[in-house]
Amino acid sequence: MLISNTQEIPGKSIVKFHGVVSGSTVRAKHIGKDIMAGLKNVVGGELRGYTELLTEARGEAIRRMSYQAESMGANAIVNVRFATSSVAQGAAELFAYGTAVTVE
Amino acid sequence: MELLIYAITPAMLLGAWITGTIIERRHFARLALLESGSSDILALTIEDIPAEWQVVSSDLVLGNVVISQDYFKRVAASLKGIVGGTIGVYEPLLERARREALVRMKGEARARGHDTIINVRIETSRLASQRPDGKGTAGVEILAYGTAISRNVVGD
Q1: Which of B55, B68, B90, B123 is the best mutation test for A, with the most CBs of A within 10 A?
Q2: Is it true that domain B2-152 has CATH number 3.30.110.70?
Q3: N or C: which terminal CB in chain B sees fewer CB atoms within 10 Å?
Q4: pLDDT exceeding 70 applies to what percent of chain B?
Q5: Strands A76-88 and A91-103: what pairing?
Q6: Whether the predicted interface score ipTM is above 0.95
């Protein structure tokens, strides 16, 4: 699956559009990581536990989006966008969407 | 005993200020090093690539970081917020996070064997809320993403 946030896959041409595909995941933090982040929050700096959590979650959202595109018979997703929203205290939704296409 | 309770908050503020400043300085020094190491990767916000570039392969690359402000500066910012104006203590924080996210994105592009990233976008989202008194987790996530490409340099 070729994924790009540009209008088309660089170096290839689109032959068919399949429509919008999306993938999302809602993640909450592990209690241990939460306590660690709370302590780190006093002195500031990177909250590594949260960075990793969001990286994994975004990867999962992209995978789900790819599965959907695959089931439509597409081989690429163009114009991918990301959205993050905190749905509840300590939980965040990672959302990825784009247009499934067939490229040559 | 009462004296001790009154001493805790100023001591915590002072401790957070000193540690936070040290962390910030170290981060800026590390960023300068990382950026000079990743200067071979070209990151562009444009989407249309020159016609003479022959793109061989492409990949979506991302770089993210969750960063938080120290307790002292959060309290300082909430006090400054009363009168309004520029909240200077937050500017270096966001700058650090953006530069870090860009460096990580470039690192991913290099790991996949690409040398150029087009259509770079940078997004900011607040991860969790903080309480008005400056306590509580207040993380900000910066996400940088773009399409990394490899090209033949015949037309360059």
Answers
A1: B68
A2: yes
A3: N
A4: 90
A5: antiparallel
A6: no
